[in-house]
Every structure is written in structure tokens, then in C-alpha cells.
Amino acid sequence: MKLYHNVYLVCGNVYSSEDNVYAIDAPEGTILVDTGTDDREYEIIKEQMAYWGLKPVTHVILSHAHINHCFNAARFQREGAKIICTAPVADAILNATDRLIDYHRTSFTFHTRSFEKLTADVVIKSPGEYTFAGLPLMLYITHGHSKGCLVISMMEGERQYLFTGDFMQVAPVNAHGVAGWNGDIEYDADAYLKELAYFSTFEPEAVLPGHGQQCMRDAWQIPKNTYVRALRATHKKLNP
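RESULT FIELD:
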């Protein structure tokens, strides 16, 4: 599904899937944000890329280490893509550590029997502007939801598109912002609240999260509202 002239949703709820994967049509290739959970989601991604006639995937940015975001990373790497992530995520995908475990799964919706280990090609050690496939992106590192998350900012003129992974999500019909899952073994509520305070100053054109719906109108409210909800309630009870 085409969201903007160079941003596509290639996996997610509209494809009867739970995990959002975004494709960015960059000057020198396609950048994927996350890779989905299993074989079926890999097939959905490939089908959608073919439908839209997108260029081969040259870069994959992993928003964080949870397996429902990075399971297919090795496949795309074998196909020629460079895998980009932070140091904690690089450690997780190289050694299949507990950071990968999909802790909240209580049913057999997906079939992630074994994780194919891989070595990251680019390890992001500090926030800043990076250029991939000829496209400049601003990468921010957060540690509240899980260690080494990346929030990705893409500018189109004065418009900011914010790819938030699980750091920040959107309630149905854009009713309010939603903080990410709090079940990670390294979840840090104090760090998370400080990070939400920082992002509350952002006023993006769109918030494109790792799950659920996208906010493509009045999205400037989402970072502010998520932080306000965190201040008004016990942070671990934010998810509706």
C-alpha cells in the first residue's frame, strides 16, 4: 500500500498480518524498516514490492531486536541488503540472545521455529544523520522499550515522517498515542519516560509504527499525547 510518493506499507494489518514493514523508495535502492516475523510475512513483503515495482532491497533498518521485527533479516542480507541496527540488536541477531524472544506470544499465530543468526553490516553507535541508498535519514537511539531501539526520521521538504517501531504506537482511529509493550526483560520505565519527553517536542506529518494503524493526519499530536498519558498514569499500564 502506497502511503506517500516514496513510502510503502508492505506488510501489516491490511495484509492480514500483525507486523508493519515499510519500504522506502530511495534514489539508489529500497530501504526496508523491519522484516516481519515468519515465512508468510516474507512472502507478503516480496509480493508487495513486486506489485509496486520497487527496486531491490539494498538496506534494512531494524527498529529493535524483538523477533517479530527481525526474523527475516538474514534472508534479505543473503539477497544483497546491508543490515543496519544498534549494538544491542547486533549482539542479539549474532548470538540469538534473549533480546529476540517474542515474550508476549501466547498462541501459535506465527511459526518462528528457529532464528537464522547473522552479523550486522552497519552498527549505529550514536544518534545522527546517516545516508543509505542515497537518502539521508536521522536515526535516534532509545532504550526504554528495549535496549537499542531506533526511531527513524525521514524528511520530505518540511514534512517529517517518523518510523517509530514499538517505541510509540497509535490507538484505533487515532484516538491517542500508545506507548510500546512493557514486557521486555530490559524494559526501563524511567528511561522510557525521559525519551517520551524528548520526542514530545516533535511535530511529525506522520507516525508510522511497528504495529497497528498509521497516523497520517494531525500526527503532531501523537508524540505529545503519548508523553501526557505517561505522566498521568502508571507507565506500565498505558496500553489500552
